[in-house]
Each structure stands twice: as C-alpha cells, then as structure tokens.
Write a structure and sequence with these properties.
Layout: H1 43-83, H2 86-93
Length: 97
C-alpha cells in the first residue's frame, strides 16, 4: 500500500500531489461541454404554471384589501367633492363667519 519508500523527516518527498505514492489508476471523470448543456430547459413552461399556481394561492389574501381600499377611496373622493360644492357647503357647513 502506498509506496514511495520510508518517510523520514527532513527528506524531500516531492511537490504537492506527488508525495511519493503510486499514481492512481482507473479514475475516470466525465464532463459535458458548456454548449451542450441546456440550463434553461423547461423554465418557460414551469414559469407559466408556477406563476398561475402562486397567483391562485395568494389572490384571496391580496385582492380583498385592495377592493376595500378602492371602494373607500371612491366614497371619500365623492364625499369630498360634495362637501366642497355649493350644495354641500350649505347642507353641512351652515353659515360661514
């Protein structure tokens, strides 16, 4: 096992990676060229269905407050316009000083 002789302190054993042991054999590595990979495969299809699923799950949490705010703002604008009109001043304000 190992090999390369006896390890004695102060004796040069070689550079990093060749520390006096037998070279490894039978190690195989595989790689795929960058232009052969498909990193975005299926993202458009997944994005459409994932967006629909997320929208469907969140719409009942988000929509009611916006609807309430929209209706309230409509009522407030209408009330403000009425109070600042001639009829509204006479009805609500009474006589001015």
């Amino acid at each position: 096992m190992g090999g390369g002789g006896e390890k004695i302190p102060g004796v040069y054993m070689g550079w990093w990676g060749s520390l006096g042991s037998q070279p490894q054999k039978g190690v195989v590595s595989y790689a795929l060229a960058a232009n052969r990979q498909r990193p975005l495969a299926g993202t458009l299809n997944a994005a459409i269905f994932n967006s629909f699923r997320r929208f469907r799950n969140q719409v009942l949490w988000v929509a009611p407050p916006f609807i309430i705010a929209y209706v309230t703002m409509g009522w407030a604008i209408e009330k403000n316009e009425y109070l600042n009109s001639k009829a509204g001043r006479l009805a609500e304000g009474g006589a001015e000083e």
